């Protein structure tokens, strides 16, 4: 098949030799490419863009290939939600309930607790139940029993604990303190089980978790010992400053000195005495819960803080050395009961908190199965069996945490973690009994709970069956759809072309139909119609000519508007018009060459005519517009999306790209050459004057062309304006143009005169700056100077200046508002005015009208003392009022910029308030970039030629300095408003410098900014101020700072209002 470019050329090649009136139907067929042969299906790797009879590579290949069954549906295999035979059941995280899930899994995997809950019976269980009614738990024991039953017998991969969470009244979206939840829930459960008849159920919490210790206090004077016994369900161990569990246990049992204000009241001495107090462990439970105090209260911030230090703990621990003599663990683990052996506990669970702070993160649990001895990681819905039989905490740390200490090497039999917050040790038994939770559940659970589980499993199975049925139906339907599309597509192709048995359908629509038939829109041919309601030849290549056998089924299914069937859809008139355009273009090319040769310089002789330059540049475009033709429309008529082959767009051939690029470049060049005016007039109308439609006297808009050129142009534009070389121009416009030229010349001359007269003033050179010798200087409104500069630079754009308004420098009492400071000899600098020499003022007075003449005179009296006089005199009252207004305006701003410099750590200790003033030279010494050009100051001079005054200001001590801000290393720009508070400003700085607000000390000119509620304007912070930032301590991790912003400043409510504190009637 020839290239698209060749096919495009062949489709209209006949038009070069055929008159439009002699166009036949064969010519029309050729123009619509229906003279080409149909491409057999599967014969082309790419779609033939220039052949409307090629239906290859338009997206059909995917339907003729093998389609995976999963492509016909979006339903995941529901069996993925089925519990594996050798795995436990997970618990769904309802938002922030991961801390609850970890404890539920921990208690479920305690066989004693689990069996006790299986044996739990509701108080009203003896009442006869309605067998038709569905049972649902109503108490805390019932909910936990139902949950444990499902964890044991459910077919689901994970359970939804929504009913349990709702019963407790917990907010599923709020993360709570895990240790507090454990304590409150066990207290609640212990109370709920206390009314059970079975002693094993009634006392299970105490028997499993409760231990005993005593506070033993010894008087240092008399040696009397007093003992106060107490029970515990867990030991709270501090990890701050400790590296191992042994250190934390020793710290817990460490002797405390009671001295000074904390003396002990000895009953024997009958007075306060120095004493020592120590905790004696008396009895350890079978399950020893060790709470690592990883979350501590920070008094400085008033919030909880997480300690991310590593703690090392053993897989097996001998608690003998921590017990007092003759006191051991367990109901039977007395000193005699273990025959003098050590009291050994095995690690059976590690609870983990991932996250840098106490207010965010995620809870997971590592639990050892008592039967298989394997470790499992419980992460809400996901449960992972650890490889081997050893605990693996290698992946428990959050990979996004930064700045943490490196994990040290652990001895064999030990583990180390910076995220573990609770360790569970279980008393080592020589021959522990293996338990099967499923068998125990079947034997111990009441019948209605077993029915509850069975119904839940039935619901799950029905859900699986329903989804599988839908999947199978979708697959079957999809395969039928595949066969239907294949059949329809094959019917679209021609074996042998018959024009009257075909129909035009959009290629884009065919692409979309083969991509996703379900999303196909109705077939719309309206964009491809010509003005005669037939198929436009220019749009023909955006469509494909298909067999009616296939298109009928498509139109019946997807419907649409007007159909383009057979030869009646081809437009003879449009083809004739295009033929005329092609022939006209050929003639235009010949004429264009002729025009080029005839309009060369020194070629024109004899009669000639005026042609507008813009018209002559665009005459070809105007011809095409007359023909109803537009370059934009005549670009590649097959401007459609590249063919789609199995979802991939086909790349254009190199030849087509080159042709398209050439046409695009030509079009862009033409468009750039035409102005908006050129697009809005007809040929040669650009040489007419706007007011009278006569020959414009402006010769820059027209040119002369020979009579031969003009005659050819007239053939294209018969009714265009015609002016011979000697035709007169518009007299009225000619006079107006002459006057305009004179005015322009006057303005240019005026601007040049004013520039020459005031050159130094305009260029800010040789300005008066001091009154150290007798002199008179005049004051000029600076706004006038800016206007004068604009006029001199562009005198034809701006109006000439006539008046000078110095009244803004004068008060209502006609007194001067900007006086010199007392005793100050250097001229006062202000943005509202400039100083001029007497010679300059004389010229200004002559050239402009001045409303007020203002001058400052320095003179010597008889004693050679220098004096200063201002004319008019200064109005002291109004000067004070002006200064107050300006001062207040300085501190009223919106979106102003101030600069903040952070003080390096090495300078914080030695930096006093005076050394932190950014205006002092010494305060900049810490930055090597500040003094990179040296600190040498420019010596004073009596020469009045210095920097422009608006670039110079004065310090409080009168020293002149540049107003340009020099940025130093470590400095940041901050956009602020005068109405924002200092607290809001500190929050901005926290994001820039990673220093929390409570660690920020801010200094302005050496003075500390302390009032967080005050506004920046109230603290007299002006735009451009330099604030020094001192960090009191190293900044926290950025994630920690973000949590500090998000945490409410109000008091934490904890579990207030939940069932854990007895505030729900449903809790029992």
From TrEMBL:
<feature type="compositionally biased region" description="Basic and acidic residues">
    <location>
        <begin position="948"/>
        <end position="959"/>
    </location>
</feature>
<feature type="region of interest" description="Disordered">
    <location>
        <begin position="391"/>
        <end position="411"/>
    </location>
</feature>
<dbReference type="InterPro" id="IPR033841">
    <property type="entry name" value="Pep_USP48"/>
</dbReference>
<dbReference type="GO" id="GO:0004197">
    <property type="term" value="F:cysteine-type endopeptidase activity"/>
</dbReference>
<feature type="compositionally biased region" description="Basic and acidic residues">
    <location>
        <begin position="647"/>
        <end position="666"/>
    </location>
</feature>
<dbReference type="InterPro" id="IPR028889">
    <property type="entry name" value="USP"/>
</dbReference>
<dbReference type="InterPro" id="IPR000626">
    <property type="entry name" value="Ubiquitin-like_dom"/>
</dbReference>
<dbReference type="InterPro" id="IPR029071">
    <property type="entry name" value="Ubiquitin-like_domsf"/>
</dbReference>
<dbReference type="InterPro" id="IPR050164">
    <property type="entry name" value="Peptidase_C19"/>
</dbReference>
<dbReference type="InterPro" id="IPR018200">
    <property type="entry name" value="USP_CS"/>
</dbReference>
<dbReference type="GO" id="GO:0016579">
    <property type="term" value="P:protein deubiquitination"/>
</dbReference>
<feature type="compositionally biased region" description="Polar residues">
    <location>
        <begin position="910"/>
        <end position="920"/>
    </location>
</feature>
<keyword id="KW-0539">Nucleus</keyword>
<dbReference type="Pfam" id="PF00240">
    <property type="entry name" value="ubiquitin"/>
</dbReference>
<feature type="domain" description="USP">
    <location>
        <begin position="89"/>
        <end position="428"/>
    </location>
</feature>
<dbReference type="GO" id="GO:0005634">
    <property type="term" value="C:nucleus"/>
</dbReference>
<feature type="domain" description="Ubiquitin-like">
    <location>
        <begin position="973"/>
        <end position="1036"/>
    </location>
</feature>
<dbReference type="InterPro" id="IPR001394">
    <property type="entry name" value="Peptidase_C19_UCH"/>
</dbReference>
<keyword id="KW-0378">Hydrolase</keyword>
<keyword id="KW-0833">Ubl conjugation pathway</keyword>
<dbReference type="GO" id="GO:0004843">
    <property type="term" value="F:cysteine-type deubiquitinase activity"/>
</dbReference>
<comment type="similarity">
    <text>Belongs to the peptidase C19 family.</text>
</comment>
<dbReference type="Pfam" id="PF00443">
    <property type="entry name" value="UCH"/>
</dbReference>
<keyword id="KW-0963">Cytoplasm</keyword>
<dbReference type="InterPro" id="IPR044743">
    <property type="entry name" value="Ubl_USP48"/>
</dbReference>
<keyword id="KW-0645">Protease</keyword>
<dbReference type="InterPro" id="IPR019954">
    <property type="entry name" value="Ubiquitin_CS"/>
</dbReference>
<dbReference type="GO" id="GO:0006508">
    <property type="term" value="P:proteolysis"/>
</dbReference>
<dbReference type="GO" id="GO:0005829">
    <property type="term" value="C:cytosol"/>
</dbReference>
<keyword id="KW-0677">Repeat</keyword>
<dbReference type="InterPro" id="IPR038765">
    <property type="entry name" value="Papain-like_cys_pep_sf"/>
</dbReference>
<keyword id="KW-0788">Thiol protease</keyword>
<feature type="region of interest" description="Disordered">
    <location>
        <begin position="629"/>
        <end position="677"/>
    </location>
</feature>
<feature type="region of interest" description="Disordered">
    <location>
        <begin position="910"/>
        <end position="975"/>
    </location>
</feature>
<protein>
    <recommendedName>
        <fullName>Ubiquitin carboxyl-terminal hydrolase 48</fullName>
        <ecNumber>3.4.19.12</ecNumber>
    </recommendedName>
</protein>
